[in-house]
Each structure stands twice: as C-alpha cells, then as structure tokens.
Design a protein that fits this description.
The chain is of the alpha/beta class. It has a domain of 153 residues: Isopropylmalate Dehydrogenase (3-Layer(aba) Sandwich). 43% of the residues lie in helices and 18% in strands. It contains eleven helices and eleven strands. It has an eleven-stranded mixed β-sheet with strand order 3-2-1-4-11-10-5-6-9-7-8, with helices on both faces. Helix 1 packs across helix 11 and helix 4 runs parallel beside helix 5. The two termini are 36 Å apart.
Length: 312
C-alpha cells in the first residue's frame, strides 16, 4: 500500500470543505494571539463564521497588538473566561452557533460549561476526545481516541468512544471506518481486562450495538498498524495494517501514543471533543497553524454531516 509522506492528508480534508458554506462557531475567550489568529484565519478560509465571545476590549487589544484584522467580526461581550464559556454554550443552545471552539481558557473550564446538566450541551452519549492525525509514515488520516477526557473508560464508555469516532470518520468521507482496538497483546486473556473489552466490543458490533464501522481487537500496536507483523503472528484481519481509528485501552495509553506520534514521527494532530450536541474544537498554544485549521475543517465536515442527518 502506498504511503504518503509529508503533506497531503489534511489538504484533502480542506478540499472537501471548499464547496461547503462556513459554519457559525462560538469561540470562547479568544484572548491571546494564538487562539484569536486561529479563529480569524479559519474564518478567512471559509471554514467557520467566528462569533468571538469574551471581553471586547481585551480581544480588540490583542488584535491590535498582533495585527489581526477583526473587521466584520461579531464580538459578544463576556466579562471573563468562565462567563465566556457559559455564553458560548448559550449561543449554541439558542441555535446561533453550530460549533464551539476553545480560545485561551482552560479546556476544563470550557468542558465544564458543555457538560453542565441544566445549561450545557449534553446528548445521550458520553463525550470523548479524538486526535485526527497526519502521520508522515502512514498512508491516510489516523484517528486516535480517547487521549484527553476519559481516564479509565469501562466497556459502556468505550461503546460511546468508539461510536463517536466512527461517526466522525464517516463524516470525513470514510465509507466504513476500520477500528483497531488496542491492547498489549492480540489474544484475549482474563489477566488483561482491555483484551476482554476489545472482544466484547467486536461482538457488540456484530450485534449492531455499534454501527457503521469494522472492528477488530484486541490488537497490539504492531499488528494493528503493520500488516506484515499481523501475518507473522497468524492474524487474519481486514483491519490490520489499514485502520482508520485506533481505540486506546485508557487515557494514559492514548495520550502517550498521540504524543509519541507527534514528537517522534512528526505528526500533526487536530483535536475535537465529540458526543455533545455539537462538536467542540480544542486547540492548543503548541498547535501549528496547519493543525488549527485542520481542526476547524474536521469540525466543519462533522457539522455538515449533522445537518444532513437532521434533514434525513
């Protein structure tokens, strides 16, 4: 299978966005250069229509100091970061925004507003995080989940984590996403509970409790990502060597995997939170411009997919 090195994978996502209208997006507390520039640039590229939520004077001060053009941008006043998070969520609840984007506040502060019982954006699913990764040595976009929210997910949690990722991959144009459920070994053993979870998830997919994807597991990382390694171990799998999604056994494993790919394999990583009523774009000060734009592109495609579902 041909491996595409360097750029190309994120750019194909942007090509899919080119013919689609921008999505109204509430940007919570964009009060530093990185978060404000990311939102404005995504707006200029036609991915989102940013609604900047935060202290207007501070946002304009940052824009002036960083030479960011705010002409035509809508600013909704909020006194501080906590109020910005609450107001941005309220804009989504009112239907004025279809996406939520993190500014310069802490992730916990924004997600706290998202999961608030009376005023938040809860759905019937558990929320989970995905990294959408462009790994130079891998032949397509790779989704890693969950590496940021669910610390020690149980089986029911993993059902939602898996379904969230499958639905996202479908919105990105993958017809039947392949899910590799990771563990330390590829055999089922009671001594290692993640292997039992993996086997259960596969059977749940057989019973249509998880839909839209092709699951296999447990798979160790080598035979998940490398077909020859799988063949050497006698594993006959449609997923091995070609997964779209890597489902980690817990947050620590997922986080280490994602950061290893970033810092050892020079991967770019876009980040989203799924499972709420709308996707939440999570960006970091350490993100490259390319990764920030990719996060918005992925969220835009997910939002348009939700529109189609709502109409259908």
């Amino acid at each position: 299978m041909k491996t595409e090195t360097g750029t190309g994978k994120y750019e194909r996502l942007l090509e899919r966005c080119a013919s689609l209208p921008a999505i109204p997006t509430a940007v919570a507390h964009p009060c530093d250069q990185s978060s404000l520039a990311g939102a404005v640039e995504a707006g200029q590229k036609g991915l989102i229509k940013p609604i900047l939520v935060g202290p207007k004077a501070k946002i304009e001060e940052v824009a002036k100091a960083s030479k960011i053009d705010l002409s035509g941008a809508e600013i909704v006043e909020a006194a501080h970061s906590h109020a910005s998070a609450a107001q941005a969520v309220a804009l989504v609840r009112e239907g004025r925004a279809e996406l939520l984007m993190k500014g310069s506040l802490h992730s916990d502060e924004l997600l706290g507003a998202v999961v608030a019982r009376e005023t938040g954006l809860r759905s019937g699913r558990r929320i989970s995080h995905v990294f959408i990764m462009d790994v130079p040595t891998y032949h397509k976009v790779l989704v890693v989940t969950d590496a940021a929210i669910n610390i020690a997910p149980g089986l029911d949690d993993k059902v939602d984590i898996c379904q969230n990722a499958i639905d996202l991959a479908i919105s990105l144009g993958v017809e039947r996403p392949k899910v590799a459920i990771l563990a330390a070994v590829e055999t089922v053993t009671a001594k290692m509970p993640p292997t039992i979870d993996a086997a259960a998830l596969c059977k749940m997919a057989d019973r249509k409790q998880i839909t839209g994807g092709l699951l296999d597991g447990p798979l160790a990382f080598d035979n998940a990502i490398n077909l020859q390694a799988a063949k050497t171990k006698g594993i006959d799998s449609e997923v091995a060597g070609d997964p779209d999604i890597l489902l980690a056994p817990d947050l620590e494993a997922g986080n280490i995997l994602a950061k290893m790919l970033t810092y050892l394999a020079n991967a770019d990583s876009a980040g989203l939170v799924l499972g709420a009523k709308v996707p939440v774009i999570l960006t970091s000060r350490a993100d490259s411009v390319r990764a920030r734009i990719a996060s918005c592109a992925v969220a835009m495609l997910a939002a348009h997919s939700r529109r189609k579902t709502a109409r259908g």
